[in-house]
Design brief:
- The structure is a single chain.
- The chain has 277 residues and is mainly α.
- The protein contains 11 helices and 2 strands; from the N terminus they run H-H-E-E-H-H-H-H-H-H-H-H-H.
- It has a two-stranded antiparallel sheet.
- Helix 6 packs antiparallel against helix 7.
- The N and C termini lie far apart (68 Å).
């Protein structure tokens, strides 16, 4: 009896890091392409239309800052009016723009889902990134302009200012994920979010500070993640000139929970998306 030696099957080596890096680069290219497409769709392909990514929020933030500085007292509760408006209205604009662009985002980009690489998550990442970067750059230009004209002083604590902005960016992204998914599930979401964004103004902290409230009511404002973020931004901008209050532990877990809920909803939203054409 002749024994034939068993052939050894050698499998190709698995390089997990290489696969991960390749997938990451693929998603990066997809999101980059979606951002360019979004800019062309909204602002056209000609000349410098893409500058409206920054120009639009500048008109909102700068216009409100000029109006409030002109009609309101120079200081309120010892806080310079221009600094108060800029540090509150920039985060508010970021939040509202992210929410507005997230609604029905999947339906309006339905044809893109014929491409296997494009996912609902990529679309919200691209749209949120565009709104967040545009608003931050607009805020920087308005702030530098106000400092140059003598209406504001340079930030005192850059670390706290950036920390507040980072938390606000993540919060806006989480809200966008949730709003985009729910707007595909129910038509009512689009109307409710519009009304909610106005009714929520008092608890955003954009036009009020925690320390301005009576002691027994301050906890209500601190329940709002955005109010915590705005307090950090104002603390970074104005330093010890004002008394800011924020709960970093609460802000971290409530914002993280919001993002996790948003990711779960986004992973299940495909069956609700109506693709036309």
């Amino acid at each position: 009896m002749i024994h034939t030696p068993k052939r050894r099957v050698t499998e190709p080596p698995i390089n997990g890091l290489h696969e991960l890096a390749r997938d990451f680069m693929m998603q990066y290219k997809v999101i980059h392409a979606l951002i360019i497409r979004e800019i062309h769709t909204r602002f056209g392909r000609e000349n410098l239309g893409f500058l409206w990514v920054i120009g639009e929020p500048i008109l909102f933030c700068g216009g409100v800052a000029i109006l409030w500085t002109a009609i309101r007292p120079a200081k309120e509760h010892g806080l310079a009016m221009t600094a108060m408006v800029v540090t509150g209205y920039v985060p508010l604009t970021m939040w509202r723009h992210c929410l507005g662009r997230a609604l029905k985002a999947y339906e309006s980009n339905g044809s893109l889902f014929y491409h296997r690489q494009v996912t609902p998550f990529d679309i919200i990442v691209a749209r949120s990134f565009l709104e967040i970067i545009g608003t931050i750059m607009a805020g920087m230009i308005v702030t530098v302009g106000a400092i140059g004209l003598g209406y504001m002083a340079p930030p005192v604590d850059y670390g706290l200012l950036v920390l507040g902005l980072v938390y606000q960016c993540v919060f806006c992204f989480g809200c966008a994920l949730v709003a985009a998914a729910l707007s595909e599930v129910s038509e009512l979401t689009e109307k409710i979010v519009g009304i909610f964004s106005y009714l929520a103004l008092p608890v955003t902290g954009a036009f009020i500070m925690v320390s301005w409230l009576p002691l027994k009511y301050q906890w209500i404002l601190l329940l709002s993640p955005m109010a915590n973020n705005v307090e950090m931004i104002r603390g970074g901008q104005l330093g010890p000139e004002i008394h800011v209050q924020y709960d970093l532990f609460y802000d971290t877990w409530i914002t993280g929970l919001l993002v996790i809920v948003g990711i779960i909803l986004t992973s299940k939203v495909r069956k609700f998306i109506e693709i036309n054409g």
